[in-house]
Amino acid sequence: MTAPFVQVALDVPLDRQFDYCAGEIPTQVGQRVVVPFGRRQQVGIVLGHSADSAFDPARLKTITQVLQHEPLLDADTLALLKFCADYYHYPYGQALLSALPTRLRQTQAAVSRKQYLYALNELGLAAGLDAIPKRQAIQRRLYSALLQQVGQHGSGMSEAALAALSPSWRKAVNALQQMGWLTAHEVIAGLSLASPSTLMPPILNPDQAEAVTRILAKAKEFAPFLLHGITGSGKTEVYMRLIEQQLADKPGQALVLVPEINLTPQLEARFRSRLPQFPLVSLHSNLGESERLQNWRLAQSGQARIVIGTRLSVFTPMPHLRLVIVDEEHDGSYKQQDGMRYHARDVALVRAQRAGVPIVLGSATPALETWHNAQTGKYGLLSLGQRAVAAAALPQIRCIDVTKQPLQDGLSPALIEAMRTRLARGEQSLLFINRRGYAPVLLCGACQWIAPCTRCSSRLVVHLRQGRLRCHHCGHEEKIVRQCPSCGNADLHATGHGTQRLEQTLAALLPQARILRVDRDSTRRKDALTDMIAAVHADEVDILVGTQMLAKGHDFPKLTLVGVIDTDSALFSPDFRAAERLFAQLMQVAGRAGRADKPGEVLIQTAFPEHALFNALRSQDYAAYAQALLQERAITQFPPYQYLALLKAEANEFALVSGLLRYAADWAHAHGTDVLSYEPVRPQMERLKGMERGQLLMQADSRAPLQCLLRTLVAALREHPLNAKVRWAVDVDPLEF
Ligand code: ADP
Ligand code: ZN
Ligand code: ZN
Fold first, then answer.
1. What UniProt keywords are attached to this protein's entry (predicted)?
2. Fewer beta carbons below 10 Å: N end or C end of the chain?
3. Which CATH architecture has domain 206-384?
4. Ligand 1 atom nearest to CA at 384
C-alpha cells in the first residue's frame, strides 16, 4: 500500500518541506520528481511518505512526474545535507538541490553528451610544431601538450584536460582536426582506463611509511589524521598508497578534495597513471554541464572508484566510501561564501565520521584549528620531514629592509636587480602582492605603536575619508589621532600603499620584460586564469605580478625568483587570521621558486625583517610559529578557542540593515545564554554593488550554545517584518569579516 502523501524538498528559501498527493507511480525517498509549485513546475527530492497531512488534502497538488526510477540521493547523503543545513542554518531544500549538478535541477530528463579523447595521429606527429604558424599560439600550445602525451597515456587527452590549456581549446582542436592531425575516441561512460605507468612507484621514506602504516591501522573506522609536510615532501605519494590499499577490496571508493579547479588536471593525470586499475572522475565547475552530470552519476552509481573534486564534490553520493583526503586543507577556498556557507573540510570530517572511514588532511601550513586538534590529540599527527626528492632544494628566503633602501614606486633596488638578473638568464620571476583582506592600520614609524581598539583585542582600521578609526569587531570608533600616544611622534601613517601602479612601474623599469598581471580583475573572464597559467608554462611570460591566486600549487619550472611586497599590513591587520594566512601564502609562494633543478630565491620587502613570522619562514618552522599564534589566540579569545558566527545583512538603505541587526543584537542579548554578542558593525566593504552592509558577530566557547541561539534567532528573523526588505545570512565559523 503506498502512502497517500509525499513530502518533497524544493529549491525555495523556506525552511520546510511540502506535501503533495502521491501520483500513480510510487516514489522512494531520495528520488527526483517534478511538482507544481506556485505557477511553475519545479524539481524536488522526495523526503518521505505519510498517511496524513497537516494540510487540507483537497487542496494539495499531485506529483507531476517521477524523473528517475531509482533514488538519486541515498540516505547517507540526505542525512549529511540535513546535518549541514542545520549547522549552517540554511533551508534544507535549497541545500539539497544546490548539491546536485545543474542538469539534475532542471525539469527535463537529463541526457549525457558524448565525450571524446583526442590524440595526435601519424600525420599530426609527422607535421611537427613548426608547421603551425607562430601566431596560432593556442594551436601550438595544444599541439605541444598532445605531443607530450604520446606514449604516456596512449589514449589521449580529455576535453577537460584540453580546456585546462585554453578556454578556446575547441576552436583550436577543430582547426587541428581539419588538418587531419587528430584522432578522437569516444569515451565509454566517461571511464577511460589510462594505460599504466611503466615507472615503478618509489620506495617510501621512513616518514611516509610510518604515515601509511598508522593510517591503515585504522582502515575501517573513523580516524582523522593531519599529514603535515611541505610541498614536495611526498604527501601525494602517501595519498596514492592509501587509496591503493583502501580500494583493493571491491567496490571501495575514495574521495579526494582539492582547493582549486586548476589543480585537478595535474593530480588527475598523476592518479590515472599510477592507479589505472581504479576508474577516476573529476568534479569541478570547469567541466561542461553534461560532463559534470556524467561524472556525478558515475560516482553515485559506484562505478567511479576515485573522485577528485573541489568544494562542492564533498556532497557527491558515494555508496562505498572507504577513504577521504583533503589536500591543502588550510585553503580558504574550501569555504563557500554564499548560499549555504559550508566549509568543505569540516563537512568532509563529518562525512568521514558518519561513514566510519579514515580521513587525511594534508598541508604544509595547517589551519590553526586543525593544528590545535592535532596538538590536543583529537587528530593523529603525521609529519613528513624533508623534500622527498633530495635534488629539489628549498629556496633561500631573505628579507629586504625597506626602511634602509629607497623605494621606487614600492620596489627596492635589490629586488629590481634580482629581476633584471633573471630576465638576462631567461628565467621567470613572480612578484607577489598580498592585497586580500587589506585594511590599513595606523602605525607609528618611530616606535611601531599601532592604534589599538580600547574595547576589544583588535586593531583599529583607518577610514581616511571619514577621518575615523574603527574597530571592525566591536564597532568602537574614534578620531584619527595626530600624535603617537606612546612616543609623541607626529608622523603617523596608514601602512600599505596602492599597488595598482606596480605593473606600469615594472614596464617602465624593465621595458623588455613580458609582464603578466594575475589578479581578480584580470581573471574575471571564465577560464582566464587557466589561460594565464598555460601562458607561463609556454614561456610566454617573464614577470608575473599577482595576488594569492598565484600562490597555489602550480609548478612553474622556470620560475626562480619570488619577490614579496606589501605584506606589512597583514602583520598588523585587524583581521585575526591575517598573519596565519600570510604565513601560509608565503610558504606556498616560496614553494613556487626553484622547483626543478634551478635553485630558487625568495626576497621579502618589509619594514619588520625581525618579525617572528619571517624568522619562522626563514627556518621553515611552521610548528614554532603556529605555537606562537595559538598562544596569541588563547589570550585574545579567538578561534580555535572560541566559536564564531556572523550575521551578515544588506539592503539598499542602511536604516533597514541597522534595524534588523539591532533586533538581532537585542535578541542575542536576551536569549543567548553563554553567548557573547557584540554590537552591529559595518564591514570593511561598507557598500557592495549598491547595497549597504552590516554585520553582527557572536561568539561562544563551545558550539552548542551558539547553535542554540542561532536556531531561535534565525526563526525569529524569518518572522520579522524587515525579513522581506533585508537580505541576511548566517555565516557559521566565518573566515571573512
Ligand atoms: P607533495 O604532495 O607533498 O607535494 P609529492 O608526493 O608530489 O609531494 O612528492 C614530490 C615528488 O617526490 C614527486 O615527484 C614524487 O614522485 C617524489 N616522491 C615522493 N615520495 C618519494 C619517495 N619515497 N622516493 C622518491 N621520490 C618520491
Ligand atoms: Zn610612537
Ligand atoms: Zn573593538
1. ATP-binding, DNA replication, DNA-binding, Helicase, Hydrolase, Isomerase, Metal-binding, Nucleotide-binding, Primosome, Zinc
2. N
3. 3-Layer(aba) Sandwich (3.40)
4. 3
**Is the beta carbon of 591 within 6 A of some atom in ligand 1?**
no
pLDDT, position 5: 94
Supply the pTM of this predicted model: 0.81
The ligand minimizing its distance to the Cα of 443 is: 2
**Ligand sitting nearest the alpha carbon of 474:** 3
Instruction: Show me where the domains of the chain are located.
Output: 5-78+88-105, 115-187, 206-384, 396-439+496-631, 643-732
pLDDT of 396: 87
Of 203, 208, 228, 237, the one to substitute when testing ligand 1's pocket (max ligand atoms within 8 A of C-beta) is 237
* Residue 231 beta carbon below 6 angstroms from any ligand 1 atom: yes
- Residue 437: the pLDDT is 40
Alpha helical stretches, state H, 356-488: 368-375, 413-425
Sign of CA dihedral 482, 488, 490, 491: negative
pLDDT of residue 167: 82
Residue stretches of the chain with pLDDT short of 50:
1, 153, 189-190, 436-438, 496-499
ipTM of the complex, rounded to two decimals: 0.94
CATH number of 396-439+496-631: 1.10.10.60, 3.90.950.10, 3.40.50.300, 3.20.20.60? 3.40.50.300
Nearest CA to ligand 1 atom 11: 232
C-alpha–C-alpha distance, residues 600 and 250, integer Å: 44
The three cell numbers of residue 206 are 621512513
Asked whether the beta carbons of 46 and 29 are under 8 A apart, the reply is: yes
Please count the residues of the chain: 737
- List CB-based neighbours of ion ligand 2 within 5 Å: 444, 446-447, 449, 484, 486-487, 489
CATH topology of domain 643-732: Alpha-Beta Plaits (3.30.70)
Residue nearest to ligand 1 atom 25, measured at CA: 202
Give the closest ligand to the alpha carbon of residue 484.
Answer: 2
Give yes or no on whether 5-78+88-105 and 396-439+496-631 have one common fold.
no
Q: Which residues contact 151 (CB under 8 A, 6 or more apart)?
A: none
Amino acid at 305: R
Annotated binding site for Zn(2+): 444, 447, 453, 456, 471, 474, 484, 487
Check residue 243 and give its pLDDT. 98
CATH topology assigned to domain 5-78+88-105: GIY-YIG endonuclease (3.40.1440)
